[in-house]
Amino acid sequence: MSAAYSVVFEPPAAKPASATRAVANRKNAQHSTGPQTEAGKQRSSQNAISHGLTARTAVLPTEDLAAFEHHVQQFLNEYKPAAPTEDHLVHELANTSWRLKRIPLLEAEALSRTANPPNEQAAIDFDIVDAHRVLATLGLHGSRLSRQFHATLHELNRIQHERRERELREIKDAAALSELHKHKGVPYDPAHDGFVFSKEEIERYALRQKRLSEGRVVAHFTLYSPPSPFKPRLTTEDLAAHAIASHSAPLAPTLAGSRAWVSEPQR
To answer: Where are the beta strands (DSSP E) in the chain?
Structure first.
């Protein structure tokens, strides 16, 4: 029989620094005070472009505040937040998008400074190596901001979807109770059942559902029934019967007693 062996290699223990070396390191650190000449200080200050991608405020002092406010308003118009959490997420989306739009401008600025320096000293202060370093930093920030944008958008969509589903269930229930009270001939107050909808909102929803029901019945005969040289005309009662059979609401009272032609006779 063959036996299995496992060999563990342990790294050699690190040698402790000598006391003499530690003293020398401390002395050297005290002498390292950064650039001493004016040119060296200028080069050190220009090693990176101030991007503001991690600042608390989304707008830099050099940017147009009115343009930023218009940018935020576009997001508010698109997503229409209906609660404080939704409003916070929409503003976070707008701020992140504003920072993302800044990155291509910063990249173009870095390349322009390298390709078209105004003088010889500027070419020394910010060369191609500095530009590559700036582009790499901007790329990291761009990836981080892009992930943040999509995560915020996903959370906003989830919250708004849940809210709309809840509102739809509640207004369906409110409309059903309103119709029940109409049938009994008694007034109905939605607030007594805990609904936040007004009577006008419930009436608009109920009327729209009735019109959709009528439209579906008529569309069934005009769009989906087999072709024939002559289609019989159907009364409102016929359409109402089909609406009830398909679990739809009955026709609106304004059409009661009228005769509806599904199609004119083909001659």
So the answer is: 234-235, 259-260
This model's pTM is above 0.70? no
Pick from 45, 201, 50, 65: nearest CA to 125: 45
pLDDT tens for 90-139 read: 999 999 999 999 999 888 888 888 888 888 887 888 888 888 898 999 99
**Which of 111, 102, 117 is CA-nearest to residue 134?**
111
Task: Indicate the domain borders of the chain.
Answer: 57-172, 210-267
Residues 173, 205: Cα–Cα separation, whole Å: 11
Q: Which long-range contacts (CB under 8 A, 24 or more apart) does 96-99 make?
A: 96/145, 96/148, 96/149, 96/152, 97/71, 97/149, 98/58, 98/59, 98/68, 98/71, 99/52, 99/53, 99/58, 99/141, 99/145
